[in-house]
Every structure is written in C-alpha cells, then in structure tokens.
Sequence to fold (63 residues):
Amino acid sequence: MPLIQVSLFEGRSLEQKRAFAEQLTRVATETLACSPESVDIIFADIKASDWATAGRLHSDKPA
Fold:
C-alpha cells in the first residue's frame, strides 16, 4: 500500500490535482506492481510564507 504525500504551494486547481493523482497512481501501479485501489495520495497545500529554501521564505522571493 503506497502512501504518497505531495506538498505544493497553494493555488493548484482541482483539475490539476485530479490529473496529477491519476498520473501518480498510474506510475505507482506500473512501478510497484500494485492495484490502483492500494495507492493513497495526500495533497498538502502550503502557503508560500510557510515554505523556505536556502533560508528565504518563498513569499519574500520575487515572482
């Protein structure tokens, strides 16, 4: 039973998440030889102010 946790900046549409979940499930079943029903995916929407890289908040970086 793979559990895939995906952290993304908030703002992705439901359509984008659906398409990504379908593709992740397809790849997981092909690679891990498991059924689609055994693949769980959790999306976590993160604010740019709650994510930092190289010591800088993404909300402070120029767009």
Notes: The mean pLDDT is 96. Strands lie at 3-9, 40-46, 52-53, 56-57.
